[in-house]
Amino acid sequence: MREFKVDNINTLKIAGMHSILGVDYYQDTIRVVELRSRGGVFNKFRAVYEVVNYFKFQLPIDASNFERGRLLFDELKTRGVHCRFCVSTVRSSTMKVVTAELPEDAENINEWISENYERLLKVPVNFRDLSFGYRVHSSAPLRCEVAFVHVSERDGVVEMINVSGLHLLGLGLGAWDFEAASIAGSSEPTDQVLAFADDDEFICSTFQKDRPISRRRFQGGGTPGAVSFIKGEVVIGGMALVTGPKAQEFDDSLAKRLDPLGLPAEFALAAGLAIRGFIPEIGAFESRPEAVIRKSTEEKDKTLLKSTALVLGGVLTVLFGLQLGLQSYLLGISKGLDGKLAKNGSVYSQIRNLEEEVNSLNMEIPGEKANGQRSAVAKALHEVAAATPLGVWLYNLEYNDGGTINLSGYARTDEEAAQYFTSLGRDPNFSNVQVLRVGNPTELEAASFMDTALKSFVTFRVSMVAEK
Q1: Given strand 211-219, what is the order of strands in its sheet?
Q2: Positive or negative CA dihedral for 360, 362, 367, 368?
Q3: pLDDT along the chain (468 residues), means of 10
Q4: Which residues contact 27 (CB under 8 A, 6 or more apart)?
Q5: Other CB atoms closer than 10 Å to residue 97's CB: what's the count?
Q6: Other CB atoms closer than 10 Å to residue 318's CB: what's the count?
Q7: Measured between alpha carbons, how far is 168 from 245 in angstroms, rounded to an integer?
Q8: Helix axes 65-78, 151-163, angle to 10 degrees
Q9: Residue 365 phi, psi dihedral angles, 5° rounding
Q10: Confidence (pTM)
């Protein structure tokens, strides 16, 4: 099973949220998957996802959003589901996805999309009636894929989730998050074509070494265009895996059905949404209103506080017991040493004097080497500070003996982060500049900076070598 890796501690695990729900609501059907994450916490995140529960149920055709939320609440209660954190998505037949190339002087992606939405959509519509999300394809030049839906459709899903008593960790657009569950079932990175088939849409994503190189969306489910597209992409990808509610309708000679994480294919999107809750960086789009983001952050903080209090209470109890035991043990040793010291006091005094003289000599010998190392560190810190522009902040710097420097920081926008990486690569004081990670802040980083005036930012980690 694929082990996802991220550079930060899994905040959700620390907060006690060992399981997360993926809620796929489409037309009159709700599919729910509850996943539990198992894996390391203190190093790079290595997780294996275990299915705790999954089910689906039908909704009345004329039910309101409030009634749908109550039915979901009742279904969760009947099935004994206690998890209260979820990720969902807005699936709409009227959703439009466009690709935009932003100019170099665009300082804020959200603002640029808001100002140019009519040119992107090519239809007259009031911006107040739209909700959108975007994902960055490349930074030089900056290309984004933007998905638009009606605000009423987004707010309908938000209302249903709120009434059900769940808290939204993320709200995607469309069915793109099925990719997370599909890749999680792979044993190693491969070149492949992944597809999602449903009644009204067909999504096809081509991967090379598990990195997407192209994505297409077709209206109307398994259309002839989608079939032709798969045939062309299989030549590149080597194999095609189809999942989703209508996966069984495709010819086995064209594509093989994929049941991710051992679930029936129709639960692929719900499983991918749950995985997105553990790893927000892999989310396709994000469309939660600001009020929902604040509320979910508050709920996570409450859960984190309760779990931390319980854990610290247990740790303090254990440490107190260890202190008493260690104190008794050291007291016994001390009494024994006092007896030996009384017999060998003069010999011990001579040895003590010799140790002090040896330590004094050792401090004198490596003095020049230590001063040289301190000078190198000071020089590297000065060069890093000089190379860091306004709009970029660093919160962690690691300097190794070989001159390798690891920087962790955050910037206001993707563009400022990309410009920073470029300036480091051109700086003669550094070499071998490698970007280890850049994207949306992790849950832990977002919680750390929530009290600052900066409300929208990206985080990064970069490695380089300081020239001597």
Answers
A1: 211-219, 201-208, 192-197, 240-243, 256-257
A2: positive
A3: 37 56 93 85 62 94 93 95 93 88 86 90 88 83 89 94 93 89 65 82 78 76 61 62 84 76 92 89 83 78 65 75 81 72 56 62 55 68 81 83 84 86 86 87 70 73 86
A4: 199
A5: 19
A6: 10
A7: 24
A8: 40
A9: -65, -55
A10: 0.60
| Contact in structure between 281 and 6 (CB atoms under 8 Å) | yes
Residue entry with tokens 């939660």 = 288
The amino acid sitting at 442 is T
pLDDT value at residue 136: 84
- Contact between 123 and 54 (Cβ < 8 Å): no
Instruction: Give how far the C-alpha of residue 161 lies from the chain's centroid of Cα atoms, to the nearest Å.
Output: 22
Q: Which amino acid is at 207?
A: F
Q: Are 145 and 99 in contact (CB under 8 A)?
A: yes
Amino acid code (one letter) for 142:
L
Neighbours of 426 (CB within 10 A): 10
What lies within 8 Å, CB to CB, of 407 at 6+ separation is: 384, 394, 396, 397, 460, 461, 462, 463, 464
For the record, the structure tokens of 4 come out as 């996802």
381 touches 397 (CB < 8 A): yes
Three-state SS string over the chain comes to: CCCECCCCCCHHHHCCCCEEEEEEEECCEEEEEEEEEEECCCCCCCEEEEEEEEEEEECCCCCCHHHHHHHHHHHHHHCCCCCCEEEEEECCCCCEEEEEECCCCCCCHHHHHHHHHHHHHCCCCCHHHEEEEEEEEEECCEEEEEEEEEHHHHHHHHHHHHHCCCEEEEEEECCCCHHHHHHHCCCCCCCEEEEEECCCEEEEEEEECCEEEEEEEEECCCCHHHHHHHHHHHHHHCCEEEECCCHHHCCCCCCEECCHHHCCHHHHHHHHHHHHHHCHHHCCCCCCCHHHHHHHHHHHHHHHHHHHHHHHHHHHHHHHHHHHHHHHHHHHHHHHHHHHHHHCHHHHHHHHHHHHHHHHHHHHCCHHHHHHHHHHHHHHHHHHHHHCCCCEEEEEEEECCCCEEEEEEEECCHHHHHHHHHHHHHCCCEEEEEEEEEECCCHHHHHHHCCCCCCCCEEEEEEEEECC
Amino acid at 56: K
Are the beta carbons of 17 and 305 closer than 8 angstroms? no
CA 465/CA 434 separation, integer angstroms:
10
Round to whole Å and give the CA distance between 203 and 173: 13
Sheet order of strands, 458-466 included? 392-399, 404-411, 458-466, 430-439
Structure tokens at 121: 């959509």
The token pair at 168 is 């939204």
Query: Please, which residues have CB within 8 angstroms of residue 107's CB and are 6 or more apart in sequence?
Result: 413, 415
